[in-house]
UniProtKB/TrEMBL annotation:
Every NERD domain range: 40-163
Segments for region (Disordered): 232-282
Name of protein: NERD domain-containing protein
Residue ranges with Acidic residues bias: 249-266
Source lineage: Bacteria, Pseudomonadati, Pseudomonadota, Alphaproteobacteria, Sphingomonadales
Gene source species: Sphingomonas hominis
Superkingdom, taxonomy of origin: Bacteria
Length: 374
């Protein structure tokens, strides 16, 4: 089942709005470079989340999926987990790291990772993706030990997911490196965390309630990352403050083209076979974003709680907004929406899918009462 849903689709919709804004072309090159790098990462995480959700979704009570988790690393920083899978019968935890490369993944004679991008005659060096996810494993292992859950999940596996259109040069990368095309990711995970019906019958795995309790503890320790639009100084945050532009991460951008995500594959079972279905090649995003079709109108604003309004957006998502001078309403709404909805700095509202909106709407009265307490 999915305990913490991926918000990447909503974040991509927001990024599309920002990049279509007339003021976007006037932003400094370094800011636009940082946004493009951000979008590229979102596409990769969205594609992997789709594959994992399809396999371990709501009807699956043997596993728990947690997307987009950020935990303190014990050294003053944070570890960003794209996807974590807890499996109660095999007593395993798996970490999946998404990478949206666009070319042939290989290594040189020194074991250093690189990508041969399409149309380029020389490879580009990239950070070791497996070493990155192994560092995340150390953080998760320390968390499990600190919370007393090492017996519940005895082994932690690491997996790197890349687009299905990539080539992985196994003659250079090696067969032992846990890097897989996303459409073969579950098949690559099966030898580590999969179980058969017979083995589950005699399994001494943890109970479903214990697995959920541990997942909820992980989610409770999640630390929200600063909004990229606030960090880059493009828009104010939910508290109304505006940061000075920070483009330091733009200098570290990987020197690769920005690629759009491939179409989501049809929802059919992932089966480990010698040949994997490959979606059509991903087109390249040009600097100029193509015009969007004429949008439908958003619904009328409705007051759902004193001073807090909602409206249905043209794409079906729900937007919540508190009045600028309503500090209690803004505090209550922010507390409920963080980690579940996406802050849209352009319109100063929180955007989420309808099912999440139902939960937020129901919890708003109590949240407002708590915010009023001294």
């Amino acid at each position: 089942m999915i305990r913490k849903r991926s918000t990447r689709s909503a974040e991509l919709a927001l990024a599309d709005e920002v990049m279509r804004d007339p003021d976007y072309e006037g932003l400094p090159d370094r800011v636009r470079s940082a946004l493009k790098k951000h979008v590229r990462g979102l596409w990769g995480e969205k594609e992997t989340a789709f594959m994992l959700d399809r396999e371990f979704g709501p009807e699956n009570d043997r596993h728990v999926l947690i997307h987009n988790l950020r935990l303190p690393d014990g050294q003053g920083g944070f570890a960003q987990f794209d996807h974590i899978l807890l499996s109660r019968f095999s007593r395993t935890a798996a970490i999946f790291e998404s990478k949206n490369y666009a070319g042939n993944i290989s290594k040189n004679a020194h074991g250093e990772w690189m990508v041969w991008y399409r149309g380029q005659h020389r490879p580009q060096n990239i950070p070791n993706p497996v070493a990155q996810v192994r560092r995340q494993r150390d953080v998760l292992a320390a968390w499990l030990k600190r919370k007393g859950h090492t017996k519940a999940f005895e082994r932690i596996g690491v997996f790197v997911s890349v687009p299905a259109t990539n080539d992985i040069d196994r003659s250079k990368v090696g067969n032992d490196e846990p890097i897989y095309k996303c459409d073969n990711l579950v098949a690559g995970w099966m030898p580590f965390g999969g179980t058969s019906p017979l083995s589950r019958l005699f399994s001494t795995g943890v109970s479903g309630l214990q697995m959920l309790a541990i997942a909820d503890q992980l989610i409770a320790d999640h630390v929200e990352e600063e909004d990229i639009y606030v960090r880059l100084g493009i828009h104010p945050g939910p508290d109304g403050t505006t940061a000075e532009p920070d483009t330091s991460q733009a200098d570290d951008a990987e020197p690769e083209p920005i690629v759009d995500a491939p179409e989501e594959p049809a929802p059919e079972p992932v089966i480990a076979t010698s040949q994997s279905a490959t979606p059509p090649p991903a087109p390249v995003i040009a600097d100029a974003v193509p015009p969007s079709p004429k949008p439908r109108k958003a619904g009328a604003q409705i007051e759902v709680c004193a001073g807090i309004m909602e409206r249905t957006l043209p794409d079906g998502r729900i937007a919540f907004r508190a009045a600028k001078d309503d500090h209690i309403g803004r505090e209550a709404l922010t507390a409920l929406c963080k980690g579940r909805a996406v802050w849209n700095p352009m319109f100063a509202n929180w955007v989420c899918p309808p099912d999440i909106a139902t939960e937020i709407r129901a919890a708003l009265p109590n949240a407002v009462q708590l915010a009023q307490l001294p």
